[in-house]
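Example 183.
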Amino acid sequence: MLATENLMKEHQLILKYVDLMERYAAFSLKHPDAPLLLEKAACFIDFIHEFADHFHHAKEEDILFRYLGVPGVLTHCNPVPQMLMEHDKARGYVRNMEQAVQEKALTTLADNAAQYARLLTEHIYKEDNILYPMGEAGLSDQAKTALLKEYAQTDERLDSPAIWAKYEALCAELGLALDALAN
Ligand SMILES: [Fe+2]
Ligand SMILES: [Fe+2]
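Predicted structure in complex with fe (ii) ion:
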């Protein structure tokens, strides 16, 4: 039984957006007359707020990290405070992006988008390859059953199928829009 499979699947979609956002940033800096990132920034910021921060973290921060904080689960070291610090750092980049959109400051927007992308790529690598395996090893089957039940309740409360459908469609749309201009 895996307690983190669900969250790793969410990471894959987050990484797709992060990759797209980097490509949008690179394209916009090369073609300032077509500041694509400024035009589509609201889509990326909406995804980060709704999917990454609200939907993913409702399970990661509010459920998984709570279970990992139970004494005896993480025995060697506890990377959770570092992960929480990185979540906060990421939120800072998004706030800067929002401000840059208001000021129509393309370079600042692209810079913060690139920093967000870099941070998230490294952050997700650490979660997938270090923290989550530690959790899988340390959580008892009983704890995993309880945790999965809480995930299911959260997914139901937040209407997981609707969120996935919305953001997978938006991801495809953003990819096509960029490909159409770049080719
Ligand atoms: Fe995280
Ligand atoms: Fe995560």
